[in-house]
């Protein structure tokens, strides 16, 4: 039985009246990269700062490598921290920035230089070693920050929106680099981001945060395909939410039918919310609607290159967004005003506490 | 179209001429006449007046007081700037407003107030006097007056820089293993260095020319507590225009050089920041 690299229990923090962390519990395994994803103001950066010891929580415990961090200052937590604004030391060379941690810890110059050179190589900045950090691009600066954080051989790496100050192209390239460096060094990592694509790409698991709480912690696939809450479904990608009924493993939003897979379905009857991803909604030419299909009118068609985006209105009165592959047989022909048949390829359900009170959903 | 352009050009020309004219009339000409008076009797007399032991003593004292004032305010002004920008405590806004008070009240009033407090008539002065410590009419009194008068410069110069420095640099140092004193010495101080330098220059040059508070607290004792500006005033009053002008020229030149130096020190960093 191994001790998790980081375990957080019931963490609470308020700023004045506002509760920013409303009881967070989380556990991160050794060498795992956990992405904390949430909208701005959800408390994710606060959580990271509490883990780092830069902020004190009102309640709860943080354990790093099994050791309780209460009263332990940031310098003794064995962490590396990368800030959104890089937080490099200005008017200082790349090498001196990276060596800072080793210097203040009294590492002798020989070892210090060796480690610094190793880090420079790791992030591909050996050529720029003696340049002032002011001469570097944003992407290079963040790589210096990463090398600086890793130079002191931390056991936990904390990245606070490390890419959000960069432009989109650099961001995409750098997030792959960060993930590669993380795997190479094999360090347990927490990355905070509001970018779902980033979380999906780098995270072994994703913790979705909203309003000071964690809504779901799961693999990227699960978070997308089996969201635990409506917030998670809506925050990660697009989703159609329809009222429906559950009957023997199949959800029926109106005339549509979705066979639910997996054995984790916690309820076997009654009213549910049905979540349909736009790419799981597909169309057929007009004709007789078989079981599980419904008739619909195409409201608008937008050509997005690889995909075709349609707004369609079903005969039950649902307004759906559908995403069609360019290779779909109807993709080149369908226009606004067409009548089509609609079917759902897959979907998931959530309990609907209000559903029972609204029987008009069920036609 | 061209008509409005002409008017624009005219307005611009007139503004330019007015600004330049006033600059000459109000700033440059008095300095030129100062120069004329200083060397009116020949460069030999000018030199002679400069070498006057009382003049040398006055200039020496002026420089000493300015240096000491800069040192004292460098420490307590910087500390105050930290207190006001980094911490939230009850009464912060009141203290923040009070910092600028020395700019608002006449310096003579400042000197007078200090005199009443620390002079032989004042409670503190009497207490210290009984223990043979004399604050007024001596160096400590001058220093007290100058520290008071120049207090806002350091606080404001450092405070402005401190507010623009993100805290994440210090946090980064903490996570990297720096102890609090290392964070302060290696990250905070370098970050506000420019503010400290600017504040020091302003404090120093303001102290060089301080008159109002000095004349109240120093007693204007020739050769002992008489600073440069007081020397100029006394010489002029006794009819020694050349002697007054010689020292005046020197003080004006010193102030000019300090400001020039400040420009030189600041501009490269300002350019880099932009």
Write a short abstract of this structure.
The complex is a heterodimer of chains A (363) and B (274). By secondary structure, chain A is of the alpha+beta class.
* DSSP, total strands of chain B: 0
Mean pLDDT of chain B: 90
Largest sheet of chain B: none
Work out the count of structural domains of chain B. 2
SSE arrangement of chain B, N to C: HHHHHHHHHHHHH
CATH superfamily of the largest domain in chain B: MetI-like
CATH-assigned fold name of the largest domain in chain A: Rossmann fold
How many individual domains of chain A? 2
Succession of helices and strands of chain A? EEEHEEEHHHEHEHEEHHEEEEEEEEEE
What order do the strands of the largest sheet of chain A run in, or round the barrel if closed? Answer: 6-7-8-3-9-10
Per CATH, the superfamily of the largest domain in chain A is P-loop containing nucleotide triphosphate hydrolases
Structural class of chain B: mainly alpha
Please tally the β strands of chain A and state the result: 20
Main sheet makeup of chain A: 6 strands, mixed
- CATH domain fold name of the largest domain in chain B: MetI-like fold
Helix run count of chain B: 13
Q: What is the tally of helical segments of chain A? A: 8
- The proportion of strand residues of chain B reads under 5%
Question: What are the low-pLDDT stretches of chain B, counting only 5+ consecutive residues below 50?
Answer: none
Which properties best describe this structure?
A: 363 residues, OB fold (Dihydrolipoamide Acetyltransferase, E2P), 8 helices, elongated, disordered C terminus, B: 274 residues, mainly alpha, MetI-like fold, 2 domains, globular
